[in-house]
């Protein structure tokens, strides 16, 4: 290990340890690496610009963020919830099912777990806790758990980022996320049913079937968005980046023209918030480009590959170990940092072991999403605490059972890769 890489690691962990944002920590550490390695410090900026110019797909990130923010401000969320209540609210634990189904639908529009939790989450938690139907902790916990589905079903911002660092097809990644997302929704609904019977939660009054067509028609334009996105990408009409632009435009047209639920003032705030969120992600992405250059310069992936080959590690054991590592890191790091900073180290190893990069990418994203609800630093727990005022103690006491069922679903995906690869292969993926 070279002297400059030691300086880099000490600086990186030192800055991160005192609370410096990860992106800034990487960039500052990288500048020291170049300085002590007698290299031009301007190389740091060059690597950021090269990475950004070569990654047209990255434009999808701010566009999907903007689309999610527009939908949260408009009445799209309310219409979707009314549709979900009419469809599944009649069953035992109905509002819990509504929570999960709403996340499944909303995930096909935003690609963001935080947008799901902050948007639909705040409203549905209020409905669940009204008149003591459900305990506050349970309502918050199932909301956080269902929000993890957001980045699994396309569109998905984490999958866009994984595509950038792995060169895997974003189109096939999006397809590969559909079945795992549905499985996650299914296990959450099964657990919700079991708990609802055990605790005797209130069964909601069924919406008459005669009203279902009217409720569906009010939500239908919003329900069309996932179909438009998927047709555009897999019908060969648009690239994923163009589809993201269409999603943002479609959300804007729905809220401003069709539903007339957004003002110029609120639109300005949406753009400001979207720019801030995109910039925060962009700083981490820029740091990741420099970090990848350093990792390759130090031949760290090659050393890891030789080490694992020397240990004769099987692909399945490697996947299990990496998923345990990602799960542990998810307790302290956000998904963007894990995907952009940690995962690139293992891409060459996956290739050497013959592990499919689409399968690996979906596993990493699913695992990173579970990390968003894992104490002590699961960001979704803090988001829901901030928007509802429900204490972290109440949320954490109820979240463990949902973490367990999601880990069960993840285990199935690890052991049976065909669950993830079936749909891409139906559309011509050769592996």
Q: Could you explain how this protein is built, in words?
A:
With 431 residues, this protein is mainly α. The protein has helices spanning 3-17, 22-36, 42-54, 60-73, 76-88, 94-110, 113-129, 136-147, 157-166, 170-199, 212-234, 240-258, 264-297, 300-310, 315-330, 335-342, 347-353, 357-371, 379-388, 392-415, 418-426. Helix 4 (60-73) packs parallel to helix 7 (113-129) and helix 6 packs parallel to helix 8 (136-147). It is globular. The mean pLDDT is 83.
Summed up, what is this model?
It is globular, with a radius of gyration of 22 Å.
Which segments are poorly predicted (pLDDT under 50) over 5 or more consecutive residues?
A: none
Mean pLDDT: 83
Shape: globular
The ordered H/E elements are HHHHHHHHHHHHHHHHHHHHH
Q: Would you count the extended β strands for me? A: 0
Largest sheet: none
Class from secondary-structure proportions: mainly alpha
Question: How much helix is in the residues?
Answer: over 70%
Number of helical segments? 21
Chart the SSEs and their pairings.
Blueprint: H1 3-17, H2 22-36, H3 42-54, H4 60-73, H5 76-88, H6 94-110, H7 113-129, H8 136-147, H9 157-166, H10 170-199, H11 212-234, H12 240-258, H13 264-297, H14 300-310, H15 315-330, H16 335-342, H17 347-353, H18 357-371, H19 379-388, H20 392-415, H21 418-426
List the keywords.
21 helices; 431 residues; globular
